[in-house]
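User: I'm putting together notes for a lab meeting next week and I want to include a structural view of one of the chains we've been expressing. I don't have a solved structure, so I'd like a prediction I can at least talk through. The sequence is below, exactly as it appears in our construct file.
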Amino acid sequence: MKEEVKTEEIEELEALPEPSLEKPAKKTRRLPPLLRLCRRTTVFLSLTLIATIIFFLTGNQQAFLDSNLKLILQIITFNAIALSFFSGISSLECIFYLVKNKSLRMLLHFIVYILVLTAAITISVFSLTINLLSEGISF
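Assistant: Thanks for the context. Below is the predicted structure for the 139-residue chain, given as structure tokens.
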């Protein structure tokens, strides 16, 4: 009787899965590598653009030199152009992955990138206009 109980216990222990030191695989929804790189670049350029705009506004309030304000405006313009370039590329990538995977998440990314693209183009045109008006009209 005791031998039967022992063999049953041994069979039950053998049927259990072996413990492993590896962590179970998580289901993560990672973006494709190129889109992830473009997203990080877009976030960096967006934050840099916001910081330079704040720097321009505070410099204008504190009466910076005109040459310094023009330099800050040029930095804002170049930053906005780079941001519009990367957000445009990211929106094209989102269109590709939206057609390929048909996921709602890519649609959300696409909408955000289009909004960032329009904001960057607007800021770029606005800063170029201010820069041209500050130089004056010369014939």
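A couple of points you could mention at the meeting. Residues 34-135 form one domain. The chain has a mean pLDDT of 86.

User: Perfect, that's what I needed.
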